[in-house]
Amino acid sequence: QVQLVESGGGLVQAGGSLRLSCAASGRTFSVFAMAWFRQAPGKEREFVAAISRNGSSKRYTDSVKGRFTLLRDNAKNTVYLQMNSLEPEDTAVYYCAADPNYARISYLSLNRGSWGQGTQVTVSS
């Protein structure tokens, strides 16, 4: 497993931007596909975006396409989620996850892979 620490959350007005970071330690970062999930109050955790081990492949949930961009820097053991044009519906706790298998990371359950502790994103209207 790998240890993950998220940062960059906060309070922002609708239409604003935030950049979340997820720093990894403990294992070779480049062997892991990375993903972000989010969980809004009273809702189930949902997949947001994923990136392959070398960054060549990415996928996003439909609601964030064109607004969110996922990047990784394997030299810094960090993955970034750039969030633009934020909407109140984006309010949630955002979690970073790691798994060696890019094909299945979108469906990663809490008892598999590695997870961070989460960072709160609040978008006011």
What does this structure look like?
The chain is an all-beta fold and 125 residues long. The chain is 0% helix and 49% strand. The chain is built from no helices and 11 strands. Strands 2, 4, 5, 6, 9, 10 and 11 form a 7-stranded mixed beta sheet that branches. The protein has a 4-stranded antiparallel beta sheet with strand order 1-3-8-7, with no helix packed on it. The chain is globular. The relative contact order is 0.31. The model has no long low-confidence stretch (mean pLDDT 96).
Quickly describe the structure.
By secondary structure, the protein is mostly beta strands. Helix content is 0%, strand content 49%. The chain has no helices and eleven strands.
Low-confidence stretches: none
Based on DSSP secondary structure assignment, what is the total number of beta strands?
Answer: 11
State the separation between the terminal residues, measured CA to CA: 39 Å
Summed up, the helix count is: 0
Strand residues, percent = over 45%
Secondary-structure-derived class: mainly beta
For the residues shown, what is the average pLDDT?
96
Radius of gyration: 13 Å
Summarize the main sheet.
7 strands, mixed
What's the order of the H and E elements? EEEEEEEEEEE
Helicity level? under 10%
The shape is globular
Keywords summarizing the entry:
mainly beta; four-stranded antiparallel beta sheet; seven-stranded mixed beta sheet; 125 residues
Layout: helices, strands, pairs:
Blueprint: E1 3-7, E2 10-13, E3 18-25, E4 33-39, E5 46-51, E6 58-60, E7 68-73, E8 78-83, E9 92-99, E10 114-115, E11 119-124
Parallel strand pairs: 2-11
Antiparallel strand pairs: 1-3, 3-8, 4-5, 4-9, 5-6, 7-8, 9-10, 9-11
